[in-house]
Amino acid sequence: MDQEQQATTSDALPGPAPVPSPPRRRRFLAVLAGLILLVGSGSACYWFFLRDAPLPPDPRVTYKGPYLNVDPRVAYVGDAVCARCHKDVADRFSHHPMGRSMQRVADVLPRENFTAEAKNPFESKGFRYDVERRGNSLWHSETKLDANKEVVYKKEMEVQYILGSRTHGGSYLVVQDGQVWQSPISWYTEKQRWDLAPGYTTQNVHFERPVTAECLQCHSNKVVSEKDTVNRYQEPLFRGLAIGCERCHGPGDLHVRRQGAHASETERDYTIVNPARLDPVLRDAVCQQCHLAGELRIPRLGRDFSDFRPGLPLHYFLAVFSLPSELVDPRKAVSQDDQMPLSMCYKKSKGELGCITCHELHKAPTAEKKTAYYRDRCLSCHEAGLSCSLSLPRRKKVDDNCVACHMPANSSSNIAHTSITDHRILIRPQTEAARGKPPAPDEIPLVFFHRDLDDPASDTQNRDLGIALARLARQANLPHLARLARPLLETSLKRYPADPDSDDALGLVLWMGGEQEEAYRLQKRLLQQSPRHEHRLELASYYARELGRLADMLEFEKRLVEINPNHSDYQVTLAELLSNQKQWAPALAAAQAALKLNPARLDARRLIILCHLRLGEKRQAETAKKAYLTFNPADAETVERWFD
Ligand code: HEC
Ligand code: HEC
Ligand code: HEC
Ligand code: HEC
Ligand code: HEC
Ligand code: HEC
Ligand code: HEC
Q1: 427 alpha carbon to ligand 2 midpoint, in Å?
Q2: Handedness of CA 631, 637, 638, 641 (dihedral sign)
Q3: What is the spatial distance between Cα 69 and Cα 270, in angstroms, rounded to a whole number?
Q4: Residue 18 above 60 pLDDT?
Q5: Residue owning the nearest CA to atom 5 of ligand 3
């Protein structure tokens, strides 16, 4: 929902301001999304303090494999060190999209297109967006124009980083006080133009979309979150910018020392991982870190996503849940890693087929060489064995491009995180229709992706499933899933009573199951353990509002504003609550702070008029009204009445 639409147009006289609910929905969903994204970065810390049941041991220490650099004590050294001896690999990789997954704006400025043909500026729903180069920096701005094209406000932010190699596009990041936000403006390579960032057309949050650690762990080499926050990071923000060598090869310190000491060339080097030498499960895990989207990714008990090391199984760190294949149209909304195991090539080759059978990691084939390149890959298996049963003349019509017929691009999919190329490798992909049938109410609509593999932590699979179900229940608003989740979570919490992720999930389940007082008590208990946990506070505040505990809610919102003064949601809610208590001066200050952060907020503008009126500041109220009505002329009648 656009924030312009958030102001209520009720005719009620301005008594104590009604506590408006519209922004809530968005925030509640955001809270949940955040919880999902945050748990990974948070859980390790809690364990340190709260451990009172034996945890599954750290696989980096206990795993019985030959690689020495899976050990958590082996240090990362950074790409520059690898490049000293592997210069040609490093050069090639720097041209691969993964080698440019995160870029400094200053490095690509000369290649940016700021022309009118590239739609700079462009307009959307009454706002104008500009991209402007100033010396070595890049600025994005949002301008609100009134009916006469006069500027109502202009908000401009410097953008420092580009998320995305711009193979398909690029999103831009704003960094302020250690917090990272996404700009509303993105670059679209295919269309060669600027436009609203993905997702902003349905929900324009202006410059206020937090970029979470989860995004950055897949899109950059390494970040370290500030504990309990949504989008605040320790300095330096990026440790290695784009995805680096050690994400696929593991930490390099031992290897560098070994090679520096001129090790014997005959002995196998177990100080560094070469994915090509791994067995299929471990080989696939390297890519699945980031390419296996699944439906939900739950950090395993006591583990953190960033603990994963190449050479170890991914499911020791992350439980990935997918929808069962009969419930989804496999062409839609799933990643390459979800699709590949469905192919006959994968099933019948007993895992010989892996991502790296077809993809050379340190360089991508050029456009002219693509057809031949991938044909060679297919023929590495299909020349000797089963070959194409379509006649050669017919295949020649498309240059015998195996991929064009068996792995076509799904042109309707331009959604980030879904495969464009059909990785199911079917005989006739076009005729393979959706098989969707709605799940029965007592049916669990998720499957553990790695269910066929040996899992030493299998006794926690139900715990992971419980957490996944709870989150899915809330995201998709399916209370019956919450009922399925509850016994799983309760059983697990008996065994591991201090598992914060299960507790968070149980709170959701209780809330959705109608036991709201119980959920609220639990939430407050969780907050005692982590009083400055941003998402827990948001959720507590939401529960307090729904239960009518406005005094509690005020405390929560005050704390939220204190720990994150840069999110207008918190400031606006605080202003609403204060005005509810007729504390007009502090309410005005909070509403003004919100407006400064996000001048598009109509709820803040409305509160400002009201507060000025209540404080007897008629002239300021008039000015604020004039500005407000340029955004929302439909509200004129109501607002005029406040002045009577
Ligand atoms: C002091 C020089 C040196 C440095 C620094 C160095 N390597 Fe190597 N590396 C070598 C040599 C020599 C070999 C063996 C010959 C070869 O395969 O090129 C090797 C082999 C490898 C292999 C193949 C191993 C196998 O089993 O097939 C990988 C992968 C690798 N290095 C990655 C890295 C990464 C990643 C870094 C940075 C963390 C790095 N190297 C830093 C010298 C170095
Ligand atoms: C599990 C890993 C993972 C997470 C988490 C993730 N991404 Fe991605 N993202 C990817 C991969 C892999 C691709 C490339 C996929 C492809 O091309 O099929 C991608 C593609 C994208 C693209 C398109 C880039 C382009 O050049 O077209 C954008 C934009 C994007 N992600 C933004 C985000 C944001 C914002 C978040 C956080 C809300 C996020 N991603 C979270 C793995 C991830
Ligand atoms: C996205 C994963 C990924 C990243 C990032 C990556 N590699 Fe590799 N690397 C691989 C894979 C997979 C192989 C095995 C390729 C094969 O033989 O099919 C490999 C092989 C190698 C080898 C041995 C074989 C060869 O081609 O010489 C070296 C050395 C190496 N990588 C160095 C590096 C360095 C240095 C970097 C960083 C500049 C890097 N890699 C980044 C995945 C990656
Ligand atoms: C650290 C996360 C990460 C890991 C590990 C990783 N990828 Fe990626 N990969 C990405 C992201 C993010 C992109 C999108 C890059 C972009 O265009 O900005 C991507 C893009 C790609 C692309 C698309 C390149 C193109 O031409 O558009 C291929 C192919 C790919 N990865 C294959 C692999 C394979 C194979 C592995 C395992 C050896 C692997 N990746 C490991 C995150 C990762
Ligand atoms: C690692 C080896 C390997 C590679 C590489 C490979 N395949 Fe296969 N593929 C197989 C095997 C094994 C089968 C099953 C053959 C059988 O049923 O006897 C198969 C089956 C198929 C089928 C029949 C699918 C079905 O549903 O019955 C098609 C079509 C196919 N492959 C196309 C391709 C194309 C196109 C490529 C390249 C893009 C490719 N394969 C690459 C091993 C491979
Ligand atoms: C049988 C060959 C084959 C295998 C195996 C394979 N890919 Fe691909 N992949 C392709 C082809 C062909 C393309 C399209 C390339 C293009 O058009 O430039 C592609 C494209 C991609 C892209 C770019 C986005 C898209 O969907 O077009 C990504 C990312 C990717 N593959 C990741 C992976 C990962 C991760 C795996 C392992 C789970 C994998 N691929 C396995 C052949 C393969
Ligand atoms: C013009 C589209 C087209 C091209 C190009 C093409 N195929 Fe096919 N392929 C088909 C069709 C259609 C069938 C099913 C034909 C039939 O009914 O027997 C098929 C069947 C197959 C089968 C299954 C054979 C069987 O007996 O089950 C394999 C394997 C296969 N193709 C591999 C390939 C490979 C490898 C290439 C590239 C060298 C390729 N195809 C190129 C359209 C194509």
Answers
A1: 29
A2: positive
A3: 8
A4: no
A5: 245
Nearest to 233 by CA among 217, 248, 219, 245: 217
Find out whether 465 and 321 touch, Cβ atoms under 8 Å.
yes
Tell me which residue of 560, 547, 518 sits closest to 228, measured CA to CA: 560
- Residue at 307: amino acid letter: D
Identify the CA nearest to 564 among candidates 181, 220, 282.
181
Residue 398 in contact with residue 314, Cβ under 8 Å? no
Ligand 6 lined by 402 (C-beta under 6 Å): no
Task: State residue 328's pLDDT score.
Answer: 58
Q: In this structure, which residue's CA is closest to atom 36 in ligand 1?
A: 82
Beta carbons of 627 and 597 less than 8 angstroms apart: no
How many A from CA of 101 to the centre of ligand 2? Answer: 9
Q: Could you tell me if the CB of 291 is within 6 A of ligand 6? A: yes
Contact 641, 13 (CB under 8 A): yes
From atom 24 of ligand 2, which residue's Cα is the shortest distance away? 164
Cα dihedral sign, 60-64-65-69: positive
Residue 227's CB: how many other CB atoms inside 10 A? 15
Closest CA to 97 of 16, 168, 2, 9: 168
Q: Are 118 and 190 spatial neighbours (Cβ–Cβ below 8 Å)?
A: no
Tell me the C-alpha distance between 500 and 42, whole Å: 9
Q: Is 421 in the pocket of ligand 5 (CB under 6 A)?
A: no
The 10 Å Cβ neighbour count of residue 469 is: 28
Mean pLDDT rounded to a whole number for the chain? 87
Q: Model confidence over 614-631: pLDDT tens digits?
A: 999 999 999 999 999 988
- Round to whole Å and give the CA distance between 408 and 62: 43
Least confident of 44-48, 64-68, 122-126: 44-48
Tell how far the Cα of 327 is from the centroid of ligand 4, in angstroms: 27
CB neighbour class for 37 (10 Å; exposed up to 12, middle 13-18, buried from 19): buried
How far from chain centre, in Å, is Cα 162? 15
Encoding tokens for residue 505?
A: 């999930």
Which of 75-89, 358-372, 484-498, 611-625 shows the lowest per-residue confidence on average (mean pLDDT)? 358-372
- Cα of 369 to ligand 7 centre, how many Å? 21
Q: Whose CA is nearest to atom 38 of ligand 5?
A: 378
Distance CA 322, CA 438 (A): 15
| 334 CB near ligand 6 (under 6 Å) | no
- Of how many residues is the chain composed? 644
Q: What is the sign of the dihedral through the CA atoms of 382, 387, 391 and 392?
A: positive
411: confidence class by pLDDT, cuts 50, 70, 90: low
Q: Return the residue whose CA atom lies nearest to atom 27 of ligand 7.
A: 389
What pLDDT shows up at residue 603?
96
Mutate to test the pocket of ligand 1, among 77, 79, 86 (most ligand atoms within 8 A of CB): 86
Question: Is the distance from the beta carbon of residue 423 to the nearest atom of ligand 6 less than 6 Å?
Answer: yes
| 423 CA distance to ligand 6 middle (Å) | 7
Q: What integer pLDDT is reported at residue 527 of this predicted model?
A: 96
Tokens encoding 603: 């709820």
Atom of ligand 3 nearest to the CA of 355: 12
- Atom 21 (ligand 7): residue with closest C-alpha? 388
CB atoms within 10 A of CB 22: 14
